[in-house]
Amino acid sequence: MKSVRSKIYGRLISRFRKKSGSCRDISLMQMEMLRELGLAARFVSGYAFNPDLDEGHELHAWLEVFLPGAGWIGLDPSLGLLTDHRYIPLACHPDPTRTLPVQGSYGGQAHSDLKTFVDMKLLNKGK
C-alpha cells in the first residue's frame, strides 16, 4: 500500500506533466525547488482572505522559505505574491502531509458527509 507521502509526490509529478495543479501542488513544487537550492522551506495551509469577496473563502496553501537575515518569508506561487496580513495560517510543517485539513479512515459499512462553512469579515474597515 502506498504511503500518503508517495501518493502526494506521484500526483505532483502527474500534474506537472499536465501543466495543471492546485495551490497545494504548486506550493509543494516550489518548496522542493527551494530545498534543492539548499534553502529551508515549509508548507503552510490556511486561508487567503480577500475582503472584496462576500463568500468563497476556502482553504489555500502556500509556503515559507527561511532567508538568513530576514527569517521566514511567505510565498504564494499560485497567485505570484508574497504573503501578508491577509493570509491566515492554520498549520505549517516541513512535511506537507502534516498540514492536511482532514485526515483519517474508517472500516466497514459507513457513510460520511463532511460539510464546512467559513465566514470571514473585516471587523473594522480602515479609512
Task: Describe what this molecule looks like in 3D.
The chain is built from 2 helices and 5 strands; from the N terminus they run ααβββββ. α1 (4-18) crosses α2 (23-36). It is of the alpha+beta class and 127 residues long. The chain starts with a helix and ends in a 34-residue tail after the last strand. The radius of gyration is 17 Å and the shape is globular. It has helices at residues 4-18, 23-36; strands at residues 41-48, 59-67, 71-76, 81-82, 87-93. Strands 4-3-2-1-5 form a 5-stranded antiparallel β-sheet, covered by helices on one side. It is 23% helix and 25% strand. The longest helix is centred in the N-terminal third of the chain and has 15 residues, at 4-18.
Features:
alpha+beta
Question: What's the structural blueprint in terms of helices and strands?
Answer:
Blueprint: H1 4-18, H2 23-36, E1 41-48, E2 59-67, E3 71-76, E4 81-82, E5 87-93
Antiparallel strand pairs: 1-2, 1-5, 2-3, 3-4
Helix pairs in contact: 1-2
Mean pLDDT: 84
Major β-sheet, in short?
5 strands, antiparallel
Give the number of DSSP strands. Answer: 5
How much of the polypeptide forms β-strand, as a percent range?
25-35%
Order of helices and strands: HHEEEEE
Task: Please give the order of strands in the largest beta sheet.
Answer: 4-3-2-1-5
Q: Which percent range fits the helix content?
A: 10-25%
